[in-house]
Amino acid sequence: MEVDPPFPAGQPVPQPPVASGRPSPWPVVAAVLTGCWTVGVVVVGQTGGWLADQVVLASGLDRVVWLWPATVLFTVLLVGAPALTLALLPRSAAVRAAGRAWLAAALVLGALGLLRAIPPVHHEAYLAALAATAGLAALVLRMLGRRTAAAPPWAPAAAPPAPAATMPATPGTSAPAATLLGAAGGLALLLPWVWVGALGGLLETVLAGVAATAVGVLAGELLDGAFWSRLAVGEPPRPAPSVLVGGLAAGVALLLLAAGVGQSGAQLPLLLTLPPAGFALAALHLAARPPAATRHHRPASPVGPTPGAVDRAGPTPGAAAGGPEAAVRPAVRWLVGLGVLGPLALTDPEEITLVLAGTRDVPFWVAAAAGAGLAVAAVLAVAYGVLLTRGRRPSRRVAGVTTGVLLVAVGVVAVGAGQPGLHGERLFVVLREQADLAGVPATTGRAGRDARVGEVHRRLVATAERTQADLRRDLRRLRLDHTPYYLVNAVEVEGGPLVRAWLSRRPEVARVLVSQRVRPLPAPAGRSRGTAPAPAGPEWNVRMLGADRVWSQLGVDGSGIVLGSSDSGVDGGHPALAGGFRGGDDSWHDPWNGTRAPTDEGGHGTHTAGSAVGRGGIGVAPGARWVGCVNLDRNLGNPAYYLDCLQFMLAPFPPGGDPFTDGRPARAPDVLTNSWGCPSIEGCDPGVLRPATAALDAAGILVVAAAGNTGPYCGSIDDPPAPYADVLTVGAVDRQRKVTLFSSRGPVPGAAKPDLVAPGDEVLSAMPGGGYATLSGTSMATPQVAGVVALMWSANPALVGDLPRTRQILRDTATPAVATYASATQTCGGDRNITGAGLVDAYAAVRAARG
C-alpha cells in the first residue's frame, strides 16, 4: 500500500543549517592558554610541594600533614576554574570536550592528592587507598558518561544514516590490535623502572599492581570514546591534525592524573612520562576506528562541521561504552596502568629524597628512569603517529608479536640487569620487659670497667633469651625471618601490616615500629674521595682544642684507649688510620654488606674517625686505636642497623658469630663516637634506643653523639640518641668560637643539651682512597670530643669507665663559646641550650684528669 511522502510534493527538503563565515579562533586560543596554564600550575605545585617536604625533612621539623592536601586543593581551584569555563561556554565541541576532560582530571587530582596525608612510612595503606579511590572515581566517570551518552526522552528520533561515502577502503588496525599496541607501549614505559628499581614487600607489590590497574581504568574513563571522537579533526578524521590536537588535550589530562599518583616524590617522574603518551593514544584511537569504507559519514558542509553540532545531536555514534570509538579505552588502560606501575612498585617514595641526592643513589636512578621514560614516550608518540596514520597499519599478529617481545624483555631485564626479589621494609618489635641493670657495680679502671661490661652483657642476654623464647618459636613456625637483639630487648621481623597487627596484640610486645630498608641499586653508588692535600701540621681545630699541646707538653696521645666508630665505615688503608686499627677478628662489623675488612664508600665515617684518632695532624688522639662498624652505608638507616653496631660495641664478635653466644665483653672499646641520628623517617621513635645507651652507660662505655644539623631552630635536638641524658651530646662552632647556625640546640625534656661544643665548620680530615677533604657539621665536632676523652683516660687510666667524673671534668674545663640565634626572640631558653657548658679544652681537661 502507499504511504504519504515525508514532505509534500513540490516543497524543498529542509537542509541542515550551514555556518556562515569562518569559525571564531578564540575558543581555540582559550584552550591553548588554559592548557599552558594548567601545565605550569601542576609542575610548579608538584615540584614545590616535594621540595617543601625535603626542606622540612632536612630541617628536622615535624612532617606537615596539611601540606599536600592544601597544595592539591589549591591546584584544583587554579586549574578547575578555567577548565570549567572551557567545558561550558565555547560552541566548539572539541574545546568543550577538552575542558570537560581537564575538569574531570583536576577533580581526580584533588581526590588522589588528599591521600598524601597518609604518612609515607605506611606505604601499603597509601597504595590500598589509592586503588580504592581511583576505582571509585572510574566508576563515577563511567556512570556520568552513560548518562551523557543516553539521549533524553524528548529528543527527536535519529535520522537514518546517510549512504556510505564512496571512497576506497584502507587497511585498518583492529581494536584488539590497538589494545595490544597500548600494552606494548606500557611495557616499554615500564622497562626502565624494571632495570633501575627494586620491588618492596609482597603485600606492597600486590597493592601497587592493584593501584596501577585502578589508575589505568580511571585513565580509560577520562579519555573515553566521546573525548577522542570530539577531538578528531575532519570527517573522516585527518590523521596528523587529529593526533596533534588529541595528543595535546590528552597530555594535559594525563599530566593532571599523574600529579595525583604516588606519594611525595613518586609522582615527579610520571609528570615527564605520561603526558607525551597522549600522542600515542591519539594515534591508537584513529587506528581502532573501522576502515573508512565501512563507516557512515554525514555529508560535510562546504565550510566544515557546524560549530556545536556534535553537542546538539548527542555523542558521535559509537562514542558510548562498547562502540567503535570506545575501542581505544583498553589501550589507554594498558598503557597508563603499566606506565604508573614502575614508580608505584619499583621505588620507595621515602628514598626519593635529597638526603640521598649527594651520590648515585635512588634519586639519581629515579631521574635516569624518568629521562628514559620520557624518551620512550616520545618514541612511542612518533612511531605510533607515523605507523598508524600513514601507510599500511600493523595487523593484530604484528601487534601481538611486538607486545610479546617487550614482555620477554621486561622479564629478562628484571632477572638479569635488575634487582630481582622482594626488598620490603621490616618490623622492629620492642618487648615490654627490658633488662634490670640496677646494682651493677660502678667499678672503674681497666679491670673494673671490663667486669662491668661482662655483668651488663650477662644480664641483657639472659633477659632477652627468657622473654623472647615464645615469640621466636612462633616466628620460626610461621617461617618469618627474624633477628633477635639483646642490647634493646627487641626482634626485627620480616613482615608487613598483617604481621604487624598480629605482633602488636601479643602480650610480651610493647610496640612495633617500621624498620626501613633501603632498596638495592643497579650499580654501586661510587666512592667519595678527597682532593685536598695532607696537612703540614696540626689542623686549626686541633690547635683550638689544645690537643697539640697535650701531645707535645704533656706527652699524652691517647695510647692504651680504644675508640669505637659507628658510621658509614672506615677506610682501613688510609695512611692516617691504618696504623691505629686494633686488628683481630672482632674489630670490624658490617651488617649492611658483610665486608670482612674496614672499608668505606660514603666517606663520612672515614672523616669522623680521622678527626678522632687520625695521625698526621687531623686527629685529636692519634695514639688511640679504633674499631669500626657500618650502620649508615647509604645515609638512610633504621633502628636495627643502629642497634647492630651499638650491640657490637658492647661485646664484639667475629664475622658470622652469634652476638648472644660469641660476644666478647672484655674486648669492648672504651668510648664511642656516633655522628648520626635516627629520625622518624627511618623508623625510630624517641625512646627506641634508650635502653641501649642506658646499658652502655651502666657498662662504663662513654657514648658521644652529634647534636644534629637542624639548627638554628630551638628544640631541634630530637633524633635519638642525642636527646638522652646518658649521652654526651656535641654541638659545633666555627673558627671564631661561634655556634654554627646549623648546629642543633635545646631545650630537651629532662636534660640540658647540648653538653659541649667543638669545632665543626670546615674541618679537614681523611677520606677514602688516601685523600683529604673539608666537611662541616656536628658530625665533625663529635669525634673530637671522643678524642679528648681518649686523651683524658690515656693520661689517667683510673678514669676509664668513670663516666660521671669524666663528664664533670669536661664541663668544668670548657671555655666560653658564642651563642647564635635564629632571631632576637628565639633564644632557646638561654645560652646553655645553645653552647652547652662551652667549648672543649683538651689541654685543661687532661691536666684536670691527671690531677
UniProtKB/TrEMBL annotation:
<keyword id="KW-0812">Transmembrane</keyword>
<keyword id="KW-0720">Serine protease</keyword>
<feature type="transmembrane region" description="Helical">
    <location>
        <begin position="243"/>
        <end position="262"/>
    </location>
</feature>
<feature type="active site" description="Charge relay system">
    <location>
        <position position="567"/>
    </location>
</feature>
<feature type="transmembrane region" description="Helical">
    <location>
        <begin position="65"/>
        <end position="89"/>
    </location>
</feature>
<feature type="region of interest" description="Disordered">
    <location>
        <begin position="1"/>
        <end position="22"/>
    </location>
</feature>
<dbReference type="GO" id="GO:0004252">
    <property type="term" value="F:serine-type endopeptidase activity"/>
</dbReference>
<feature type="active site" description="Charge relay system">
    <location>
        <position position="779"/>
    </location>
</feature>
<dbReference type="InterPro" id="IPR051048">
    <property type="entry name" value="Peptidase_S8/S53_subtilisin"/>
</dbReference>
<feature type="transmembrane region" description="Helical">
    <location>
        <begin position="202"/>
        <end position="223"/>
    </location>
</feature>
<dbReference type="InterPro" id="IPR015500">
    <property type="entry name" value="Peptidase_S8_subtilisin-rel"/>
</dbReference>
<keyword id="KW-1133">Transmembrane helix</keyword>
<protein>
    <submittedName>
        <fullName>Subtilase family protein</fullName>
    </submittedName>
</protein>
<comment type="similarity">
    <text>Belongs to the peptidase S8 family.</text>
</comment>
<feature type="region of interest" description="Disordered">
    <location>
        <begin position="573"/>
        <end position="611"/>
    </location>
</feature>
<dbReference type="Pfam" id="PF00082">
    <property type="entry name" value="Peptidase_S8"/>
</dbReference>
<keyword id="KW-0472">Membrane</keyword>
<keyword id="KW-0378">Hydrolase</keyword>
<feature type="transmembrane region" description="Helical">
    <location>
        <begin position="125"/>
        <end position="144"/>
    </location>
</feature>
<dbReference type="InterPro" id="IPR023828">
    <property type="entry name" value="Peptidase_S8_Ser-AS"/>
</dbReference>
<dbReference type="GO" id="GO:0006508">
    <property type="term" value="P:proteolysis"/>
</dbReference>
<dbReference type="InterPro" id="IPR000209">
    <property type="entry name" value="Peptidase_S8/S53_dom"/>
</dbReference>
<dbReference type="InterPro" id="IPR036852">
    <property type="entry name" value="Peptidase_S8/S53_dom_sf"/>
</dbReference>
<feature type="region of interest" description="Disordered">
    <location>
        <begin position="294"/>
        <end position="324"/>
    </location>
</feature>
<feature type="compositionally biased region" description="Pro residues">
    <location>
        <begin position="1"/>
        <end position="17"/>
    </location>
</feature>
<feature type="transmembrane region" description="Helical">
    <location>
        <begin position="268"/>
        <end position="288"/>
    </location>
</feature>
<feature type="compositionally biased region" description="Low complexity">
    <location>
        <begin position="313"/>
        <end position="324"/>
    </location>
</feature>
<feature type="domain" description="Peptidase S8/S53">
    <location>
        <begin position="558"/>
        <end position="817"/>
    </location>
</feature>
<feature type="active site" description="Charge relay system">
    <location>
        <position position="604"/>
    </location>
</feature>
<feature type="transmembrane region" description="Helical">
    <location>
        <begin position="101"/>
        <end position="119"/>
    </location>
</feature>
<feature type="transmembrane region" description="Helical">
    <location>
        <begin position="362"/>
        <end position="386"/>
    </location>
</feature>
<feature type="transmembrane region" description="Helical">
    <location>
        <begin position="177"/>
        <end position="196"/>
    </location>
</feature>
<keyword id="KW-0645">Protease</keyword>
<feature type="transmembrane region" description="Helical">
    <location>
        <begin position="26"/>
        <end position="45"/>
    </location>
</feature>
<feature type="transmembrane region" description="Helical">
    <location>
        <begin position="398"/>
        <end position="418"/>
    </location>
</feature>
